[in-house]
Task: inverse folding
C-alpha cells in the first residue's frame, strides 16, 4: 500500500486530467484582408496589441475610409471569438483584443466625426446593494467589442436609475447582475417598474447566486449563466426577439 | 507592528489538522481551536425576501440558528461554530446586526445550559467599501461597518472577521488581462495597506468587548481568480495564473495577524495553509461541504491542516433531509467526527496523507496548498518580511518555481505558457517597493475609480 502521495505513480483512479485530454492544438487566426495595412489592424486586434492597432489605424485612415477600418476591426474580433470558442484563447486574450479594438474604433469614429452605427443599445448594471461587478464588466467589454452601444451604470445601482436609463436610451436589452440572493430581488422590482412605464424588453439577469428559477419567475426576466454569452443575448434582443422568445431559447421553461 | 520573519513550524510535516501552536478559545464551553480537535462551522445564509423587514430577518436567523444547534444535539456533535456573514442590509443597519447576534447568542446559551453544547458565534461584517466608488478611509459605508462590528461585538459575537475589498479595482482590471504586475499591486500592496489601516480598528473593537479578532480573507481577489480559472473545461483564466494570485493572497492576508488578529481565520481564505505555516494560528477552511456555494478543485486537500471546518455559505431552504442548514451541519459534523476519530486512533497523519493524495496533482491550486508547498511559499514570504511588495513577489516566484519543478504536475501548453510568461514578467519587476509603486501608480491611474489616496499614497 502506498504510504504517501510520493509513492503514487498513477493518479487516474483518483482523478482524470480531462483538460490535458481536450487541450487544443495551438493555432493562429485566419487573415481577414489581403490589404496589408488592413490586415495589420486585424493582426493587432488578434494579438491584443493596442500600439499596433493604433499605428495601423493611423496608416489606414490616411488612405481609406473609416468604415473600412471599422469593418476590419470587427472582422479581427470575430477571429478572436473563434479562437476563444476553440479553447485556443482564454478570456484575458479576448479582453486585451477588445481593448485594442476600442483604440482603433475611437480613432475611426473621430475620423467619421461621430459614432459608428451600433447594432443595438444595452443598459447594464449591478443590483442595488451589490458591489460584485467583475462579471458585468467582462460581459460589457465583450458586448461593446461586438459592436453594441453599452450604457454601463456601474454597481449598487438604484432601481429607478435603471428604469430611467432604459427609457432615455431606448435600450434593446437591459442586464442585471448580482452575487447575493438578497440583492437580486431588485430585478423583479425593476421589471415591475418598467411594466408600469409601458416598457417591455428582455431583462437578462445572472451572476453568483442568481438562479434561473428566480429570474424566470418575473416578466421580462431571461437568465444568463455565462458572461461570454453577452454578445449573443444582445444580438437576439437587437434583432427584435421578444423576452418570451429569448427565455424559450436560453432557459429551461417548465 | 512587527512582521512575521520566521515560520511557526520547523518543517511542514509537523503541520496537522486540529493542532496549532497558538490555540484560541472562543464562545461557550469554550470552543478550543488548535488543541488536537477539529470543530465544524456552519455559515447559514438567509433567503431572498427575508431582508425586507427587521422582523422577517430576525425570524429567519432564529430558525437557521435553531436548526443548526438542534441537529448537533440530535446527532451528538460536541460543539459548533456559527458564522453569520452579513448581507448588505445587516451591515448597513447596525441596529439590525446587533439584534440578530443578540438573538442567536441567547439561543446558543439555551442549548449550552440545557445540553452542554459548546458553541461560538462569528460576525463577518460585509465590506461595503467598493474601492472605485467610495473612499476607503472616509465614507458612510465605512461608518456602517465600524458600527456593525461594535454592535455585534457588544451583543453576542465571539469573533470578528471580514473580507476586505482593498485593491479590488486594480486587481479586477489586471486579472481580466492576465497582468501579474497589476495582481501583485492590487493584492500584495494595495490590499495589504488597506488591511494595515483597517485591522487595528477591528482589533480595538474586539478588545473593547473582550472577544476575539478572527481574520481576513482574500476572497474578493484570490477567489475571484480561482473561480475564473474554474474546472478543467473553463477558459476564463489559466489555473497557473490563479495559483500565482493565491500566492499574493497569502502575503496579503498575513497582515491581519500582524495587526493583532489571532484566528480563527476566515473560511474562504484558501491561502490559510500558508498562513498557518507562518503564524501557527488555528485556521478555518471550507472544502467539500462548500459545494453548496461553489465548485472547487481542492476540496479534500484543504482539510490537511484545518482546525475549524466550514461550508462557505448555504442558503436556507428545505431539503429531503431537513432544512439546508440542518443538512450541512450534519455533513460538517460527520466530516470532523472522522478527523477527530483519526486523532483519537493516532492515524491523523494517514488521513492527512489521503487528503493530500486526493488533490495534490488534480490542479495547481491544490498543489500549492499542499502542506509541503504551502510551507515553502511561507518561507519565501517571511524571508522578505520588510516589504509588502517584495514578499508578494517572492511568494509568486516561489510558487511558479514549485509548479514548474514538479514532474508529477501535468500542465497543458496554455497553462505552461501562462506560467512562464508571468514568471518572466515578475522577474523583470523592480527590486524595491518604491520603484514598483511609482511604476504602478503611473500605469494604473487609467483604472476607472482608482484613487491612490484611499491607500495613503
Result:
Amino acid at each position: 500500500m502506498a504510504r504517501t502521495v510520493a509513492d503514487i505513480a498513477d493518479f487516474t483512479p483518483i482523478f482524470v486530467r480531462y483538460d490535458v485530454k481536450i487541450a487544443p492544438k495551438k493555432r493562429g487566426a485566419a487573415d481577414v484582408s489581403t490589404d496589408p495595412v488592413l490586415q495589420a489592424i486585424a493582426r493587432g486586434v488578434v494579438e491584443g496589441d493596442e500600439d499596433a492597432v493604433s499605428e495601423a489605424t493611423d496608416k489606414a485612415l490616411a488612405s481609406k475610409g473609416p468604415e473600412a477600418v471599422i469593418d476590419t476591426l470587427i472582422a479581427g474580433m470575430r477571429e478572436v471569438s473563434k479562437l476563444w470558442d476553440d479553447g485556443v484563447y482564454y478570456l484575458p486574450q479576448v479582453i486585451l483584443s477588445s481593448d485594442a479594438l476600442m483604440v482603433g474604433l475611437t480613432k475611426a469614429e473621430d475620423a467619421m466625426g461621430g459614432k459608428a452605427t451600433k447594432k443595438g443599445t444595452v443598459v447594464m448594471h449591478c443590483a442595488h446593494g451589490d458591489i460584485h461587478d467583475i462579471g458585468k464588466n467582462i460581459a460589457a467589454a465583450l458586448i461593446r467589442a461586438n459592436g453594441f452601444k453599452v450604457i454601463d451604470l456601474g454597481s449598487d445601482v438604484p432601481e429607478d436609475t435603471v428604469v430611467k436609463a432604459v427609457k432615455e436610451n431606448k435600450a434593446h436589452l437591459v442586464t442585471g447582475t448580482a452575487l447575493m440572493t438578497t440583492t437580486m430581488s431588485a430585478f423583479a422590482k425593476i421589471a415591475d417598474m418598467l411594466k408600469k412605464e409601458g416598457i417591455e424588453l428582455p431583462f437578462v439577469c445572472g451572476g453568483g447566486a442568481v438562479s434561473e428559477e428566480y429570474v424566470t419567475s418575473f416578466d421580462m426576466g431571461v437568465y444568463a449563466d455565462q458572461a461570454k454569452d453577452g454578445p449573443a443575448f444582445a444580438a437576439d434582443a437587437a434583432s427584435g426577439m421578444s423576452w418570451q422568445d429569448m427565455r424559450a431559447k436560453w432557459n429551461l421553461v417548465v | 507592528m512587527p512582521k512575521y520573519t520566521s515560520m511557526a513550524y520547523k518543517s511542514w510535516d509537523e503541520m496537522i489538522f486540529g493542532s496549532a501552536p497558538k490555540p484560541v478559545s472562543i464562545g461557550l464551553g469554550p470552543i478550543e481551536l488548535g488543541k488536537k480537535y477539529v470543530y465544524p462551522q456552519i455559515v447559514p445564509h438567509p433567503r431572498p425576501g427575508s431582508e425586507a423587514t427587521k422582523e422577517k430577518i430576525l425570524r429567519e436567523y432564529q430558525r437557521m440558528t435553531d436548526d443548526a444547534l438542534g441537529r448537533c444535539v440530535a446527532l451528538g456533535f460536541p460543539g459548533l461554530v456559527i458564522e453569520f456573514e452579513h448581507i448588505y442590509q445587516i451591515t448597513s443597519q447596525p441596529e439590525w446586526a446587533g439584534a440578530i447576534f443578540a438573538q442567536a447568542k441567547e439561543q446558543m446559551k439555551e442549548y449550552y445550559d440545557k445540553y452542554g453544547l459548546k458553541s461560538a458565534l462569528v460576525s463577518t461584517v460585509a465590506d461595503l467599501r467598493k474601492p472605485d466608488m467610495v473612499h476607503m478611509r472616509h465614507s458612510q459605508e465605512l461608518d456602517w461597518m465600524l458600527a456593525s462590528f461594535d454592535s455585534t461585538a457588544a451583543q453576542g459575537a465571539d469573533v470578528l472577521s471580514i473580507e476586505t475589498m482593498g485593491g479590488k479595482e486594480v486587481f479586477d482590471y489586471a486579472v481580466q488581462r492576465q497582468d501579474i504586475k497589476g495582481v501583485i499591486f492590487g493584492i500584495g500592496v494595495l490590499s495589504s495597506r488597506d488591511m494595515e489601516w483597517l485591522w487595528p480598528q477591528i482589533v480595538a473593537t474586539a478588545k473593547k468587548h473582550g472577544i476575539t479578532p478572527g481574520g481576513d480573507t482574500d476572497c474578493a481577489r484570490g477567489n475571484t481568480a480561482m473561480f475564473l480559472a474554474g474546472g478543467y473545461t473553463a477558459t476564463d483564466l489559466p489555473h497557473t495564473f490563479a495559483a500565482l494570485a493565491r500566492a499574493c493572497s497569502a502575503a496579503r492576508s498575513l497582515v491581519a495577524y500582524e495587526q493583532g488578529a489571532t484566528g480563527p481565520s476566515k473560511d474562504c481564505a484558501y491561502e490559510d495553509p500558508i498562513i498557518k505555516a507562518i503564524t501557527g494560528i488555528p485556521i478555518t477552511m471550507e472544502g467539500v461541504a462548500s459545494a453548496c456555494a461553489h465548485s472547487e478543485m481542492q476540496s479534500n486537500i484543504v482539510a490537511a491542516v484545518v482546525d475549524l471546518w466550514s461550508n462557505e455559505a448555504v442558503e436556507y431552504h428545505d431539503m429531503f433531509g431537513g432544512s439546508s442548514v440542518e443538512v450541512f451541519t450534519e455533513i460538517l459534523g460527520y466530516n470532523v467526527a472522522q478527523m477527530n476519530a483519526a486523532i483519537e486512533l493516532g492515524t491523523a497523519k494517514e488521513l492527512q496523507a489521503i487528503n493530500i493524495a486526493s488533490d495534490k496533482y488534480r490542479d495547481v491550486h491544490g498543489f500549492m496548498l499542499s502542506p509541503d508547498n504551502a510551507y515553502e511559499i511561507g518561507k519565501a514570504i517571511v524571508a522578505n518580511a520588510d516589504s509588502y511588495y517584495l514578499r508578494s513577489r517572492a511568494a509568486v516566484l516561489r510558487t511558479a518555481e514549485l509548479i514548474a519543478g514538479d514532474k508529477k504536475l501535468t500542465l497543458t501548453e496554455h497553462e505552461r505558457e501562462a506560467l512562464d510568461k508571468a514568471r518572466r514578467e515578475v522577474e523583470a519587476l523592480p527590486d524595491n517597493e518604491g520603484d514598483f509603486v511609482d511604476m504602478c501608480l503611473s500605469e494604473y491611474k487609467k483604472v476607472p475609480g482608482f484613487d491612490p489616496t484611499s491607500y495613503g499614497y
